Each structure stands twice: as C-alpha cells, then as structure tokens.
Amino acid sequence: MFAFCSDPATLPQWQWMACYLTTGSHFALYRSVLVVLLLLALAAPLALGMGFLGALAVRSGNLLLKSIGTIYVSMVRGVPDIIFFLFVPFAIDQGVEYARHRILCPDWDQPVRQGNDFIVCAAAKMPLATDPLWVHNVWGFSLALFAFALVFGAFAANTLNGAMNAVPRAQLETGEAYGMTRRQTFRRILLPQMWVYALPGLSNLWMILTKATPLLFLLGIQDVVFWARELGGQKTGHYEYTHPDWRVWYFLGVLVFYLTLTWVSQRGFDRLMRKLNHGQATAGGEAQRKAAI
Amino acid sequence: MSVDFATCAESFHGLILRSLGRDFGDRLLPRGLEINVCDQVFLIASGLVWNVYLAALALFFGFFLATAIALAKSSETRWLRSPAEAFVFIFRGSPLFVQFFFVYEALVLLPRAGIEIGPITLDTQWMTRAWAGALFVLFLNTSAYTAEIFHGALKSVPKGDLEAADAYGLTGWTKFRRVTWPTMLRLAWPSYTNEAIFLLHATTLVFFSAFPAWQQMGDALYYANYFAAQTFNPFIAYPIVGLYFVLMTLVLIGGFGVVNRRLNRHLPRAARARLRFRPHYIR
Amino acid sequence: MKKLVLSAALLALGSSTAMAQTVTRLGTEGAYPPYNYLDESNQLVGFEIDLGNELCARAQLTCEWVQNDWDSIIPNLVGGNYDVIMAGMNATEARAEVIAFSQAYKLPDPSAYMALAGTDMSVMEDGVIAAQSNTMQASMVSDTSATLIEFPTADETIAAVRNGTADAVLADRDFLVTYVEESNGELEFLANVTPPGAGVSIGLRQSDTELRATFDAAIDSMKADGSLNALLVQWFGDEVDVFE
C-alpha cells in the first residue's frame, strides 16, 4: 500500500501498523463489511415480500392457504433460527441437485444416496464443476440469502398481519359503505394505513436481522467474523507481519461495528416514525399535533 | 435404514447421557456408516441438557440483575442511570454471537495462574469453559433485554395504583415490594415469556462460537450438526432437533402461562392478560 | 456438511484457452502454515499450494483452489464441491474407508505434544490435551486416558495451551515447530509420537480412479527429478524427511 512497506520487520511502530492494516487480507476484511451490508440490503426487501405473502395467506378465506400460512408463521417461532440457517441452504442445495439429476440424467441407474455419499451425475451439479468461481460464490450467497428471507419473512408476516388487524375497523367499513369492493378497501384504505402500525415491529425486525448477520460465518461465507478470527490468530514467522493472538481486539472491532450499525438504524427509524406519525389518528400523531399548537 | 429394538436400546444406553461426558456413555461418538436413526434421536436429546441448563440459570440470575438495572435506568440519579443505559445499549445493540466470541477471547487473557487477591489465589481457568463462560454471556445478555422490558413496564405502572399505595401509607421498600414490583411483573410477563423463548433458542449458538467442546460434550444442535456432517444428510438430524425445540418451547410457554395466571388472578376475568402460542418478535 | 465458500482467495490456474476444459478443483483449508495458509495479500500460499500447482501443470490439468474449513473438508469432497483434497491430510485407515488417497507426497509426519516449558510428561496420560477436531491427532488423544478438547482450527489449539485451557497440544510436528522456535523458550516439545497412516497424501473420491492415477503419475515424476524434495526443503527446512 505505502512505499515504505517493503520490509515490515524494520519499521517503527506506527508505520508498521499503517502497513499492517492495509495488507490485502485486511482489505478483504473491509470488503466483508460490504458483504454484510449487501445481505442486509437484499434480505430486508425479500423478507418483507415473503412476509406480505405470508400475512395474506394467514388472512385468506381459503382454508388450505390459511393453514399453510399459519404453520409457516408459527414454525419459525418454535425452532431456533440458526437451525433454519444450517438446514435450509443444505437442503435446497441437495434438493435442486436431486431434481436436476432426475430431469437431466434419466438413464442413471445407481442410487443417489450410497451409504453416506450424495452422488448425482456431473450435469446435475449446481453449479456445474466447470462454472467459473463467481457462479459458485453467487450460488452460495443466494442460498444464505434465501434462508434469511425465509426466516425473517415469517417474522414479518406476523408483524404485518398484526398491523393489518390494527387498522380501525370503522375505516374499512366506511370504505365498504362507499361501495368499494374488498379489494379496493384493501388497496386504498388498509394498505396505506397499516405501515404506521407495522413500523415499530418492522424496525425491531430489522434490528434482529442485523444482529443475525454474523451467522453468515456458519454458512461458510467469509464475513467480518470469519476475517476477525482469521486475521486475529497468532501469526508466526511464515507471515510477513508477525503478531501474537490479537483476536480479542478484532472482535472488539466487530462489536463496535455492529453497535454503530444498530445505533444508526435506530436513529433512522426514529426519524421515519416521526414522519409517518404525522397526521395519524394514533397516540404518536396526537402528541405531534399537540406539540405543534 | 432399518433399526431393530436391540440396537436402539444399545444407542439409548450409550448416548442418552453422553453430553455429560464420556464417563456417562460411549467413549467415542458413532461415526460415518455406523450411525443409525436411534443414535441421532438419543444423542441429540442428550444434548438438550446443555440448552436447558444454560437457559434456566441465565434466566434465573438474569431476572435479578434485570430488575436492578431496570430500576437504575428509571432512577433520577444520573450516575445510576447512565451506566444502566450503557449496559443495555451494548448488549442489545450487538449480536450475541459476536459477544460470545469477544468474551471468550477476553476470558482467555485472564492470567493463567489465577488472580491473586491478598493471600487467596482466584482460579480463572474454569471461566473459559462453556458451562461458566457461555452462561456468563447469556446471563448478561438476557439481563439487558429483560431490563428493557421491565423498564418499559415500570413506566406503565398505573398512576392510580401508586397513589392508592401512598394513601395506604406504604412507602419505600414496602411500596415497591407490595405494589410497584408485582404490577411491573404482571405487565411485563407476556414480553418476558417471549424473551425466555429467545434465550432458550440462543443457547444453540454457544458451541458454534468460540467455546470449545470438551470430550465432544455439546448441546443438541452441536450433535445435530455433527450428524449432518457425518452422514451428509440434513433431513434427519435437523428436523429432530427442530422438533425437540418446538416441544421445549411449548413446555416453556405452559410454565410461564401458569405464572401469568397467578400474576393476574386478582383481576376481573375480562381484564386478564392472556398468554398464547402466538409468535411475536420483540427482542 | 456443505459449507459454501464465498471467497476472494482462490487462484485460477492455467491459460485462458483451457477454459473449455473441465476444471479440477483443489480443496484446502488455508489455515495451516506452512502447508497451506492465506498470506497478507490474501493469497493461498504454502507447500501444498506450490506442489498442487506444479502437479497440475505436469498433468496438464486446469486447476482451481477452493478454501474450505477443515471440519467439513471430507464431506464436501464426497459431495462434489471439489475434486481433490490437499490439506496436510494423512492417509489413515479410518479416512480410507470414506475416500481414496494418492501415494504420499510427504512422508508420515511425526506428531508431537507441545506444552509450556516445564510441563510434566504425565499430562499426556492424565492432563487436558488440545487437538484440531476431526484430525488424526484428535482420535489419537481420545484413545489415551487424557481429556481431549477440540478446536475447529489448529491456531486455536496453540492459543489454548498458551492460556492454560489445555495442558498440551498434539499436532503435526512440522506445524508446531515454528511456534516452539519463536516462543523464546515459553513453549517446548514434550514427546514425539509416530502416527498411523501412510503419509500426507492427496484425498480423492473413491470413484475417481482415473484422476488418482493422473496425480500418482505426476507425483512420481516430481519424485524422480528431485523437485518434490526441493519443495519439501524449501518449506520445511533441512531437517525434513525427504524421499529416497
């Protein structure tokens, strides 16, 4: 990085530190922050979408849809989220490969499970062994992303369902009295108003989601936890920059990173809540109105 | 994978207490092709001891610290309020998983020979073991979350109740013990139940973070993960551990429901807060 | 279990014209200096990386490195996430039930107990011994009366000895030797143990007999012209056991 970094062993303290913190592997650590933020940016809208579908299913008149929705929403409550994070990517990966195997290699006569091996034909591999590396990376990341969306979708479904129930009935009845159809009342009255009721729950969900991102490490993705552990370990003479076990400092850094992230998020949500409360028939809206007088 | 009764009984004897150590069952865990369904059912069940132990003790000790912190947070004295707020911010604002790593790495920095206080040497080595170190982190973590719940409940204790206590001449400790505290608890109980469920589920993280497993003694998910890795088949071990957790969650909700009924028993039937298996995710 | 690696630390080898050919994916741990590790510029380096690249060149294979944590390195080979393992793995009987091995490219490493200076020898029988999980050494410790404590990475086993969590660590001597030399007398070897196994070898799926023959031939050619021994000395120093 810097010109003086050519021989780390001879450098004075601050220069050594400057060089050390700008090595390639440290840049990988800084990039892994982006991986975490990318996951958050993608998982949040996906989970919201899943949650919306889940909430609609729970409220549906169709008994089958209703029970599927209810099971989906309550299952995630009874089982620790980490089990889903371990299970879902693993299961989907095998499931996709099995399906491709059945379609692409119909004349394969050996069983797919031989003892403890899971063997599918080469054409059914997902991604293919010949695919370039980035395809493997994107596939791995997508599986993790899907697991997050699935778990947090169930959380969001519950929050959104509660918010829909919280919109005053009288407002919906007024809509119907004006001759709107069910669909119209939903779109014109329920949907715009539910957000103010949903926001406290959703902001809380965002916080839980943020605090669940270090679990990416368990899915084999090189996130901040991975790099903190990798870089913090003792570095012997095989490395250019030798140091004893510094993991505690690296994890302190990760801790501060997450504290900052949640602190900034909280600020953002407080501001958004003030905006949404404006003119609403809620306690928050009333307080704003009184303060303005 | 057909399993007969005899091998199943053998698995039961060898594995049901294995999570307590190899003196309590098979020395070595079943490996590779030896693994059958009964092994998975019993070994994963044996790991639940750890989840229950960690959750129960963390909740028990956390309850008292949380009450103290909630009071400190509601205090008008700044030097009581600020540390309480900082404590809650740090433990609620960062992931438990990272807290485990950080605290473990901090604990191993404690002097190897122990800390000398006057003539006594305090041994510190045991703190790095999961039964103590992880319990310590879970205890602090749940204290912070519970303190926030109790703090909210303290603020919503009805003014009328407190005025009535004043009218009866109750003051200080007596007023707190007879009026404020029971009301706070009653108001907080549904959220507190929710926190207990979260904590029970969070115990599965312990052996995935920095805390090493001694003699392959681990919790239910540690064993489920072991089996999934050994058999390359996630479809047996993970559903088993998932089912165990659903059952434990239901038992926990039942237990907390009994307490809830007791806390609400003086109220008219219509005003009682109900606990249901309804998911809500405030943490 | 399947660990999916999102990694910037992979080296694609071979010329761009070879893209149409199949790529042989080499799995390694990347946390076991000097066998294989990530250097400061976030590149995989080490004895096995140099060796693997040379073997691929000789066998005219297009190879690509994949980093995978140790605990799941065999399941992921069997599951087809990569085609061979080069990760300081000894060809033991237990592993040979699950995967196939090439001929050895490094003679059996003596394993060694390492402890803080002044530790009594008796800890090997009644003390707490750290080892990396799923290693040959972990099963060696579980066969003694000592208490085994397992860590997912080798680096953590050393830390456990330093901070007193474990009385000693059992690992490959060639891995431990740098730690002993650089500790200024704080750490020392207690004893050497001859482990079972035919030496450090390439792990492959049992069905890949053709690939195994290809690698065996490439190792033969490197043994014949002395380049394998040169690599061994380069990475492990003059005291390493070389091939005759």
What does this structure look like?
The complex is a heterotrimer of chains A (293), B (283) and C (244). With 293 residues, chain A is mainly α. In chain A, 71% of the residues lie in helices and 1% in strands. Chain A has ten helices and two strands. In chain A, strands 1-2 form a two-stranded antiparallel sheet. In chain A, helix 7 (182-212) packs antiparallel against helix 9 and helix 8 runs antiparallel to helix 9 (247-277). The longest helix of chain A has 36 residues, at 24-59. The model of chain A has no long low-confidence stretch (mean pLDDT 87). In chain B, helix 1 packs parallel to helix 2, helix 2 (37-74) packs across helix 5 (130-155) and helix 2 runs parallel beside helix 9. The two termini of chain B are 42 Å apart. The longest helix of chain B is centred in the N-terminal third of the chain and has 38 residues, at 37-74. Chain B has nine helices and three strands. A two-stranded antiparallel ribbon of chain B has the order 1-2. Chain B has one domain (39-271): MetI-like (MetI-like fold). The model of chain B has no long low-confidence stretch (mean pLDDT 88). The radius of gyration of chain B is 23 Å and the shape is globular. Chain C has 244 residues and is α/β, with parallel strands linked by helices. Chain C has two domains: 16-108 and 197-236, D-Maltodextrin-Binding Protein, domain 2 (3-Layer(aba) Sandwich), CATH 3.40.190; 111-193, D-Maltodextrin-Binding Protein, domain 2 (3-Layer(aba) Sandwich), CATH 3.40.190. Chain C is 32% helix and 25% strand. Chain C has helices at residues 47-58, 73-78, 93-96, 123-126, 136-142, 154-162, 173-181, 209-224, 227-236; strands at residues 23-28, 31-32, 36-38, 44-45, 62-67, 84-85, 100-106, 111-116, 128-132, 147-151, 168-172, 187-193, 200-204. In chain C, the strands form three sheets. In chain C, strands 5-1-6-13-7 form a five-stranded mixed sheet. Chain C has a five-stranded mixed sheet with strand order 10-9-11-8-12, sandwiched between helices. In chain C, helix 5 (136-142) links the parallel strand 9 and strand 10. Mean pLDDT of chain C is 85; it is low at 1-20. Chains in contact: A-B, A-C, B-C. Chains A and B meet through helix 3, helix 4, strand 2, helix 5 and helix 7 of A and helix 3, helix 4, helix 7, helix 8 and helix 9 of B.
